[in-house]
Amino acid sequence: MSASALTRRMEIKMATRRAFLAGLAAASLPRVSWAEVGSPACLAAGKLGDEFVLHGLTAAGESLFEIGLPARGHAAAAHPTQALAVAFARRPGTFALVLDCLTGAVRYRLTPPEGRQFNGHGAFSVDGALLMTSEVVAEGSAGRIGLWETAGFTRIGEWYSGGIGPHDIRRLSDGRIVVANGGIQTDPGDRTKLNIDTMRPNLTLLSAEGAVLDQVELAEELHQNSIRHLALHGDGVAFAMQWEGDKTETMAQLGLWVPGSAPVLCPPPDAQAFAMKGYAGSIAVARSGDLIALTSAPAGVVMLFDGAGQWLATDPRADVSGAAAVGDGLRLTDGQGGVWSYGREGLASLSRNATAWDNHLIALS
Amino acid sequence: MLLRAFLLSLCLATPALADFEQTLSDHILPGYAAFAASTQALSDAAAKDCKADGLKPAFNAAYDAWVGVQHLRFGPAEADGLSVAIAFWPDPKGSGAKSQRALLLGDPAQLTPEHFPDQSVAARGLTGLERLLYPTEALPADPCALIQATTLDLARMAKIINDNWINTYSKTVLTAGDVGNTTFQTRPEVRQTLFTQVVAALEFDKDQRLGRPLGTFDKPHPERAEAVASGRGLRNTLISLQSLRAMVVTMTPDTPLTLAGFDRAIKLANALNDPTFAGVATAQGRLKVEILQQAISALVDTVVGELGPELDVGVGFNAADGD
Fold first, then answer.
1. C-beta separation of B12 from B113 below 8 A
2. Could you count the other beta carbons within 10 Å of the beta carbon of residue B256?
3. pTM (two decimals)
4. Of A255, A299, A350, B32, which has the highest C-beta tally within 10 A?
5. Which of A186, A251, A319, A357 to mutate to test the interface with B (most CBs of B within 10 A)?
6. Using CA atoms, how far apart are residues A131 and A295, in angstroms rounded to an integer?
7. Rounded to 10 degrees, what is the CA torsion of B247, B250, B255, B256?
8. Residue (of B296, B180, B281, B292) closest to B244 by Cα position
9. What residues in B contact A358, CB-CB < 8 Å?
10. Alpha-carbon dihedral of residues B179, B181, B185, B189, nearest 10 degrees?
11. Distance, CA of B221 to CA of A248 (rounded, Å)
């Protein structure tokens, strides 16, 4: 057994033990369910004036609660049962906040260990006992999945993410985890990209215990297509990419991956090849699995694909970015405060808030 | 009562401030009308005589008119990918030439008005027509029928866009903020859309029209310039800058730095004696194109810094930077 595998196994063992002890200690804390805060359908970070906030939204786009954030948020993770949201700072992130969605109180403030930075996304384990955060080693951007028990939200270990610059992570229904290792090494002090010529993004499948089960890269000529965001789709994921190469080349922004097989890229027809400006910000797959939405704020459009990745439509909407599966359909948010339902009929306005919605809309499962 | 009358008269006495209503009436609608008229003239001319040399003036007039509205990447021109089919460039994989060759050698039924609109966007439009009127090598078959089909298709697409602006989309713009208008939920959204078009079009001029032939210092790519065969690369850049300047004037009367930035870039483009950017292969010629590119780059900053705040809009919250 290699040293790193041994370390990993020890980390997991410790994680389990500590989580158990902490769980005992916290058993008496009040637990608020999502129903008690109005059963929000999704969470969205945003900006109101000079203030940054996190909202819980209904399926109809109405705000149920609003909680202040100390700085611009990127994405959030929702606890599967308790009304707890973890708001992640934009990368390179120095904080994540565990928010009580009933009172708005900051229950815990998560700080990455020395030399680590949050990278914008996270996910809970099936039972909610474990929070996994996408992180990088500040120097060099090697990927880590930070592990936090959720009774007291203390750090209990970390896994290797399988690549450089992990961004989105998703938990499959069976507990395995897919990581989008974007491949981009960034300056620890800012967001400067340092390795565009040599970047190599990948998709990595981890077991619920953090072992690398599968990993795929794109073809050599696509090594500058950064895999950044994920949505669960059937037995695998749909993934969204951002092209870091020559702007005059056309690259797919959508791909589908079922672990155990090769990733399939889904370019739109020629007429639509430049419509996204090479950039996909958010991705969502409808619960039925038959619709996929991909947003591009720089292009001000959202693209709709069927479940097999066939292009269906491109719809304009200024600064559209957040996308999530809600109920039977899809929801989008934009930087003007709009919440939209989206599907084969195009966009339909649900609400308009004074808050400018930020990058992501996170569905509660 | 008297006061109200006085205030009303003040309002009436104030000269109309430029806003998107003026952009619509003075820039967008006339621009698409000119494009529709010029493509109709081109199609009529091709129907009478499809010889390439005779069609070149009408082709160039239609291309000029297109570049005059090409920056309006919203509304009817974006429906069904029409703008892409009108001018498919850049085409790094050469798909247009390949598809067109198949059309020249294939079943003539593909060229009928019923079927031609279904052919590859890369093979159609002005960029397709350019390859037929200014062939760089011998064409594999008589192009007459394809020239006629392409010009007819161009006139068809231009008419769709023009008609839709006149009959439908003008109302969508003018009713911005009204209940039920899902395209523009507020009036500032129209201003933001127009502002975004200006920024995006300048970036297209800088990154594509100039950036593609410039390539890198060690590896310039003059062959990647736009419309090399018809010698329109610089002309398209110049018309784009002029059209964008004219559009900005309709949006607001008060952006002196932006207009000065346009004037500087237009002056440099006018002085650049390099219609196809072939000069990028030489150190001296490259420098001149780079100077123009830098002027447009500076202009983008000025537009974002002056025109945006003047209109009280900016590049979108999410669009401004990546994740």
1. no
2. 9
3. 0.83
4. B32
5. A319
6. 27
7. 80
8. B296
9. 317-318
10. -140
11. 13
